[in-house]
Amino acid sequence: MTVGTVVSVTLGLMASFALGVWTAPRITSAPELEPSRLVTMPPAPTPAVTPVAAAKPTVKRPAIPSVDISDPALRRQLKPVLGKDADMAKAAEGFKSSEQFATIAFASRQTGVRFAVLKYRVLNEGKTLTSAIRESLPTTNAALEVERARAAARSTLQLIAISGSAG
Q1: Contact assessment for residue 92 and residue 123, using Cβ atoms and an 8 Å cutoff
Q2: How far apart are CA 74 and CA 76, in angstroms?
Q3: CB neighbours (10 Å) of residue 145?
Q4: Is 123 helix (H, G, I), strand (E, B) or coil?
Q5: CA 102 → CA 99, 114, 125, distances in Å?
Q6: Distance in angstroms (rounded) separating the CA atoms of residues 52 and 147
Q7: What does the alpha-carbon distance between residue 159 and residue 96 come to, in Å, rounded to a whole number?
Q8: Taking a C-beta distance cutoff of 8 angstroms, is the pair 140, 98 a contact?
């Protein structure tokens, strides 16, 4: 580049900057409106809350199929979740339902918290699965992990029920 080109480009940039500085206050400032031209909106009415409207809506959950906790199909499905060396009979001991068993198994796999630890905290210490996970992993969104595990467990139980009724 020649000196003349450099000077021309520099002067062009300086002129653009100066033009921007000069026009910016005129472009960004809002025009002043006369008070008589302002339109005011009336305040929105506040709806009256009735006890029925304030009641928490009930959520209908799909029925969970009844699968026996000792069902071989359930144990086959959960064996990879718990690990190939897991004693499935021992793992299933103490659970009230197959859904509880499967939920804790899936939660263990998803969070990396040992199954035995979660099982002990829920069954022996009487904690919720959410608080059991939170105790091991305080920075994890335990409620979200429980919902994911519960969804996986229900899906597994649904699959077992469908395949059992088909065959």
Answers
A1: no
A2: 5
A3: 20
A4: helix
A5: 5, 14, 19
A6: 28
A7: 20
A8: no
Tokens of 108: 């263990």
Instruction: Copy the structure tokens of residue 7.
Output: 């000077």
Stated pTM of the model: 0.60
Residue 148 and residue 88: Cα distance in Å, rounded? 22
pLDDT, averaged in runs of 10, over the chain (167 residues): 79 72 60 57 64 56 72 88 88 91 94 93 94 93 94 91 67
Neighbours of 79 (CB within 10 A): 15
Q: Which amino acid does the sequence have at 110?
A: Q
Closest C-alpha among 99, 106, 95, 107 to residue 133: 107
Q: Is there a contact between 137 and 109 (Cβ–Cβ < 8 Å)?
A: no
DSSP of 62-92, one letter per residue?
Answer: PPPP---TT-HHHHHHHHHHH-TT--HHHHH
Residues 6+ apart with CB under 8 A from 164: 67, 71, 73
